[in-house]
Design brief:
single chain, 271 residues, alpha/beta, seven-stranded mixed sheet, 11 helices, 7 strands, 22% strand, globular, binds S-adenosylmethionine
């Protein structure tokens, strides 16, 4: 089994995505979506951005490597009576089912960054975008002090080192890497812009309960707990994560969690 697919099917990202709904809607409002636009959401999960994009009038295809998340996305669209959004399995490193130049907008929010072979991913995103179209990526930033970069950093410190030649997903959060990858896919430097943006997680429960969701349902953290359990260090890992979530929480309510996380927003204009 493809280890990238196995990682995301091991968990259930829908449980985390519930804390991302309002921020997903807010992000989509900044994308300039108009009626009838063809939008690809790559690494879409269960539709955090795909479903609001469809509500804004776009015809949306969500593509994700995890079969469970594709099924969850289709269930959500159906339950909400949305007919202009559907979800399919696919791999960002090779979108062989998709024709060249078929989307006005390709969006990938914390999605394609997790695929291996980043140069292939950039090439595929450019290939399926129409001339004059746009690609928007949201990528976590390595060593950033805010939530997700720190979750991934702490998780990595409990997990065995990755195999030789592994390229960290976090390198998508470094502007020089982004430029190099899209330049290799034929995009001129002035067609690529990167800026810091913020994504806010909102959870109806205290920070320690949100840590529990990451522990049991988020692939990278689940792997860290598996490794930590073997070393007898699971309590240390949980303590570190609870301290992180509590220190970042800005909710005034004791029974709710609000945490803003910085990310690199990448916009690519396809000539
Ligand atoms: C952090 S989740 C984000 C999901 C969604 N974009 C959201 O914001 O809720 C990362 C997603 O990327 C997907 N993914 C990872 N590797 C992929 C690949 N090679 N091709 C397509 N999707 C991939 C995972 O299955 C998962 O749904």
């Amino acid at each position: 089994m493809n280890p990238n697919k196995a990682l995301w099917e091991k968990g259930d990202f829908t449980r985390i995505a519930e804390s991302m709904r309002p921020a997903g809607v807010a992000l989509v409002e900044t994308l300039g979506i108009t009626e009838g636009m063809d939008v690809l959401d790559l690494g879409c999960g269960d539709g955090t951005t795909a479903i609001p994009a469809a509500r804004a009038g776009a015809d949306v295809l969500g593509v994700d490597i995890a079969a469970n998340l594709v099924a969850a996305g289709n269930r959500r669209a159906q339950a909400e009576g949305i007919t202009n959004c559907h979800f399919e399995e696919g791999d960002a490193t090779n979108l062989r089912e998709l024709s060249d130049q078929s989307f006005d907008l390709v969006v990938s929010i914390f999605g394609a960054m997790f695929a291996p072979k980043p140069f292939d991913v950039a090439k595929e995103m450019v290939r399926v975008t129409r001339p004059g179209g746009r690609i928007v990526m949201g990528n976590w930033i390595p060593n950033d002090p805010t939530l997700v970069a720190q979750i991934l950093k702490i998780s990595a410190s409990y997990t065995p080192p990755p195999p030789e030649g592994f390229v960290s997903p976090m390198t998508w959060g470094i502007e020089a890497n982004v430029v190099e990858r899209f330049a290799a896919a034929g995009i001129p430097h002035d067609g690529i812009t990167c800026r810091r943006d913020t994504f806010t997680f909102n959870f109806e429960g205290p920070p320690a309960e949100l840590v529990g969701l990451f522990q049991h349902f988020y692939g990278p953290t689940m792997n860290a707990f598996d490794a930590a359990n073997k070393d007898g260090r699971a309590d240390d890992l949980r303590r570190e994560l609870v301290a992180l979530f509590e220190s970042q929480n800005t909710s005034a309510r004791a029974d709710a969690t609000t945490i803003a996380a910085a990310f690199l927003r990448v916009t690519v204009d396809v000539p």
